[in-house]
Write a structure and sequence with these properties.
The protein is mainly alpha-helical and about 350 residues long. It contains 16 helices and no strands.
Length: about 350
């Protein structure tokens, strides 16, 4: 079996197995798998509104996945994407309503504010890792909670209420054109920025000297130091770049989907889902894009299953988790296919 054929079969078999096992769960629970998957399909592609909402849902997942994947590729585990995304959301929302600027300046400035906020929030665990060898997992987890409560306190201070003011139109990524062709969904221009972010990450890691250094430090710090690389600097830079991607994910919500930020009683979950997206995409930029498309489609389509097929939310979550599980387990399927192929060759 050729490598190309294996690469095609692995994801197809993974998704098929996930669908089959998900169907069994629905059947055992007393619900129709056919109706459930029709509802899932309709929730993703049923009409132009659902398509628009699906793309909108995918957009922040791309940034969260890129943030996690970039850290992974440089030998770090950034569990703090959720917190970095939240502070980026706040920064973009604040710049969006606090300043009155031309659109050509306002949008880039708001995006820059989100990127800087996310990068600075990631700088702290990066610095502690580089200088004091404090494990980034512990610090980033704690930084998530700090971000949540600091952002809520800041919102209360800025607004004297539950949410900030709406951003000015000059800072908005919303588009009357995109809304009109998707039956007035919340689709915005952020999906273009997400695609550009995928290309930028690929370029940094694969086409620049700095990207080579970042990956080298991730593979082997001692060898990199022996080769003359500044290990501490690269660890900090890797975390900051990861945080920048996360902060921009927050900007998508502030400038595109909601137009402001409200007090949060819990995490958004986008940052944590970014871990699954990165793993689905094998930590590769374009793989992350595909992982986000699958994850976002299942999340948005799953919202339609209780309404159209009467399937409880809990069962929907299990079905979606099963599909993602089998896709993430593609390595096992790949090994199985290679063994089958090898056995057939031996028999011949």
């Amino acid at each position: 079996m050729s490598k190309r054929l294996t690469n095609i079969l692995v994801p197809l078999i993974s998704i098929l197995l996930g669908i089959i096992v998900g169907a069994i769960v629905m059947a055992i629970s007393g619900f129709s798998p056919v109706d459930g998957y029709i509802a899932l399909w309709n929730g993703v592609f049923g009409n132009t509104y659902n398509i628009g909402e699906t793309i909108r849902q995918i957009t922040p997942y791309v940034f969260a996945g890129l943030a996690v994947a970039f850290a992974f590729r440089t030998g770090l585990f950034n569990i703090g994407v959720e917190g970095q995304l939240i502070v980026g959301w706040l920064a973009a929302a604040y710049v969006g309503y606090a300043f009155d600027l031309p659109k050509i300046v306002h949008i880039p400035l708001a995006l820059l504010a989100a990127a800087v906020a996310g990068g600075l929030w990631a700088f702290i665990p990066g610095l502690l890792k580089a200088k004091l060898q404090v494990h980034e997992v512990i610090v980033t987890i704690m930084m998530n909670y700090i971000a949540l409560h600091v952002v809520n306190a800041t919102i209360a201070t800025l607004s004297d209420g539950e949410k900030t003011e709406k951003i000015h139109e000059t800072a908005s990524l919303r588009s009357p054109f995109l809304e009109s062709i998707t039956d007035y969904s919340r689709l915005h221009w952020g999906f273009i920025i997400a695609i550009l972010a995928v290309i930028i990450m690929w370029f940094i890691l694969e086409k620049t000297t700095r990207g080579y250094e970042l990956k080298s430090v991730g593979f082997n710090q001692h060898a990199s130091e022996y080769a003359g690389m500044n290990v501490s600097k690269n660890i900090i830079l890797a975390m900051v770049i990861s945080g920048i991607f996360a902060g921009l994910g927050g900007a998508m919500e502030a400038l595109g989907t909601f137009g402001n930020i409200s007090k949060m009683t819990a995490f958004t979950g986008i940052g944590f889902d970014g871990i699954a997206v990165a793993l689905l995409g094998a930590n590769q930029p374009f793989g992350v894009l595909l992982g986000a498309m699958l994850f976002g489609s299942l999340k948005n389509g799953g919202l339609n299953m209780p309404n159209e097929a009467g399937i409880p939310v809990e069962i929907v979550s299990i079905v979606i988790a099963l599909i993602i599980f089998f896709v993430a387990s593609g390595y096992i399927i790949r090994v199985a296919l290679e063994r089958i192929s090898k056995k057939k060759k031996e028999e011949k």
